[in-house]
Amino acid sequence: MSQDKLMFHMLSRLDRFGHEKLPLQIIKEKQSYIIGHKRNRFSDGSEFLDKACKLTYVKSNNIWKLYWMRADLKWHLYEEYQSLDDLLEEVKKDPNGCFWG
Asked: Domain containing 59: what range?
């Protein structure tokens, strides 16, 4: 699946998720994808990405790794998934409040 198709697939699975005034954004960073909400800073109004989670595909093992950012501002492994759809469903449900608070 091409990167554009992959990003479209992720957005369509998470469509209209979260707050209607905070659009979802996905960015590619090296071998990973970061999902979050586009927000404005209170101080100067500039835009930034409020990161919710990071997804990394490991081709050699054919798995997706899901990461969440802890209070130390570092990414920590949340879980590994065989399918991207299962991973996105976990992000959507967020049973532990790790991604969306």
From this structure: 3-93
